[in-house]
């Protein structure tokens, strides 16, 4: 299903549906909760939930009157609803990103190097248009930096940013590399390997780049 900001799902704006699924996350919610979040009455919420179950976005929870997001719905929860791009444009974005990966790995200041980038979703199909680029990035800590926590904390301190939370400082090196790799592109979406394994989708490795073989 191709969706944008003007699309509707089960009679409601796609953006509204996405935001409710995003709010729900891995939890479940009763009919009254959906009615409240959607701003509709219980009867309409029941009809909407039934339609969402048929579409595969929701499934019954464990308590009889609750529903949770399916794996398919989890994908919708991350949707950005940005303008679709051509295959050629997607390839261009990927090439630029892989060049940035080379630059990151060549920079001795970073706490992590990029060990692997794998793609899944529409990019690894023959779809002529794509909504985004679904990627899994595997980072490798540079052991020469010492202890992981200490290295991350030191890197955070060197950034000069005073408003970082303890969590942001503890994982500063990972966050820094991911942001540098993404470079604010709205089309690049990172997913955890655990999430992809849960969805049961196939990964296609795109970095390190395949070595070119010499021809006779």
Can you describe this structure?
The protein has 216 residues and is α+β, with helices and mostly antiparallel strands. It has nine helices and eleven strands. It has two domains: 8-77, Arc Repressor Mutant, subunit A (Orthogonal Bundle); 85-207, 2-Layer Sandwich (Beta Polymerase, domain 2), CATH 3.30.460. The chain has helices at 14-24, 31-38, 42-55, 71-77, 87-106, 148-159, 166-170, 172-182, 193-199; strands at residues 8-9, 12-13, 28-30, 58-60, 66-69, 85-86, 112-120, 129-130, 133-141, 188-190, 204-207. The strands form four sheets. It has a four-stranded mixed sheet with strand order 10-9-7-11. A three-stranded antiparallel sheet has the order 3-5-4. It has a two-stranded antiparallel ribbon with strand order 1-2. The longest helix is centred in the middle third of the chain and has 20 residues, at 87-106. The protein is globular and about 60 Å long.
Write the layout of secondary structure elements.
Elements: E1 8-9, E2 12-13, H1 14-24, E3 28-30, H2 31-38, H3 42-55, E4 58-60, E5 66-69, H4 71-77, E6 85-86, H5 87-106, E7 112-120, E8 129-130, E9 133-141, H6 148-159, H7 166-170, H8 172-182, E10 188-190, H9 193-199, E11 204-207
Parallel strand pairs: 9-10
Antiparallel strand pairs: 1-2, 3-5, 4-5, 6-8, 7-9, 7-11
């Amino acid at each position: 299903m191709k969706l944008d900001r003007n699309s509707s799902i089960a009679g409601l704006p796609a953006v509204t549906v996405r935001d409710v699924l995003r709010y729900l996350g891995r939890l479940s919610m009763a009919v009254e909760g959906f009615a409240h979040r959607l701003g509709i009455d219980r009867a309409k919420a029941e009809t909407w939930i039934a339609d969402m179950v048929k579409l595969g976005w929701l499934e019954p929870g464990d308590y009889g009157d609750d529903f949770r997001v399916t794996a398919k719905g989890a994908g919708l929860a991350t949707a950005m609803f940005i303008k679709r791009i051509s295959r050629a444009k997607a390839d261009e974005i990927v090439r630029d990103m892989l060049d940035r990966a080379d630059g990151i790995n060549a920079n001795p200041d970073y706490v992590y190097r990029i060990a692997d980038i794998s793609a899944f979703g529409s990019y690894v199909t023959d779809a002529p248009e794509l909504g985004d680029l679904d990627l899994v990035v595997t980072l490798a800590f540079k052991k020469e930096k010492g202890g992981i926590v200490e290295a991350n904390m030191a890197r955070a301190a060197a950034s000069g940013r005073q408003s970082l939370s303890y969590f942001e400082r503890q994982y500063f090196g990972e966050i820094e590399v991911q942001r540098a790799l993404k470079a604010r592109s709205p089309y690049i979406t990172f997913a955890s390997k655990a999430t992809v394994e849960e969805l049961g989708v196939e990964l296609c490795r795109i970095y390190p780049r395949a070595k070119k073989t010499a021809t006779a």
